[in-house]
Structure to design on (111 residues):
């Protein structure tokens, strides 16, 4: 598992499964609405989560702590969940998606 942050695109991608050498075609279905996209494999496993406009969602401190690509640690998951819980109250129309993202991250944290 790893997390990537593209400053130019202002997007975070959270790989929840090991990324295959050739990841083209691994994603069969994408669900969710802006700014959260959930990517699933052909066998229905959650492959990854993309968060667009990350600077509007996560604190500058958190984003500055991210490297371009790094392992997804329990510490980062804990911080992301904490920040997402704050977001949940600010954007009631996205509450279901934020809850979905928090649940997915909590499941990863338990592993």
């Amino acid at each position: 598992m790893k997390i990537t942050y593209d400053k130019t695109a202002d997007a975070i991608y959270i790989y929840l499964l090991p990324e295959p050498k050739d990841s083209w075609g691994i994603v069969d279905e994408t669900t969710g609405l802006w700014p959260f996209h959930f990517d699933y494999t052909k066998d229905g496993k959650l492959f990854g989560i993309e968060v667009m406009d990350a600077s509007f969602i996560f604190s500058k401190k958190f984003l500055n702590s991210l490297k371009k690509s790094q392992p997804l640690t329990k510490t980062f998951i804990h911080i992301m969940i904490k920040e997402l819980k704050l977001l949940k109250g600010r954007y009631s129309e996205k509450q279901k998606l934020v809850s979905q993202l928090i649940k997915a991250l909590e499941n990863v944290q338990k592993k």
The longest helix spans residues 74-90.
